[in-house]
Amino acid sequence: MKQSSLSLRVLKLVLTVCWWGSVIMAVLVPLALVYAASSSGNPKSDWEFSYTGYASGIDTSSLSAVDRDGREGRVEFNEGTWVQVFYPIETSAGRVKLVLLIAVVSGVVLAFFLVFIKQLKDILDTVSEGDPFVEVNAGRVRLIGVLLIVGTFGQALLRLVVSGYADSSLRTTGFQLDGNFEMNFMQLIAGVSVLVLSEVFRLGTKMREEQELTV
Question: Is 132 exposed, middle or buried (0-12, 13-18, 19+ CB in 10 A)?
């Protein structure tokens, strides 16, 4: 049997650690949430909910920055600065809602990550066997691209909903909150690139199979 290269062994080790780390998180997170929900009636526990949004028109008149020569500079923030506004959660019902929200978001993120890592692990297994150019790997690469694209739009949509909710729920002084659809274009390009590579992989695998049939 051909011995796998050092880089391949390192990759398999990294993916294995990521896989089992995610599995452990999938077990620990629900337990932590159950504990948090059970202690939601404890008045001594500090619970906070944060409104997250994009700030613009920030009043910087009270801010200053002086350099080593004693010169005072003007302080400005970029439009659409990511900010969080924290409020205490004083009721058990509010705390339970927060726990449920964290559970849903954590479950979706962990599910995406587990599926993503599983595809990479399966591809590396075929590499270890010496035959990665099989049709099933094209499907796995395609699924990775789809996950990247769906994750990009999902993250952008979540930020739009969260920032829009903050904009409609809060009255602010010294700055304004705006809803914003911010997309990670680098991740989107990566997803599209992986989809293109999956088609190249699929066609290459098909051509190899046809060539083997003609020999």
Answer: middle
H-type alpha helices, 44-91: none
Task: Kindly report each contact of residues 12-16 with a partner whose C-beta sits within 8 Å and lies 24 or more positions away, as own/partner.
Answer: 12/121, 12/124, 12/128, 15/117, 15/120, 15/121, 15/124, 16/121
Contact status, residue 89 vs residue 48, Cβ threshold 8 Å: yes
pLDDT at 132 over 90: no
Predicted model pTM? 0.78
Q: Where are the domains of the chain?
A: 6-44+90-213
As a whole number, mean pLDDT of residues 102-106 equals 85
Tokens of 140: 């796995």
Distance CA 120, CA 140 (A): 8
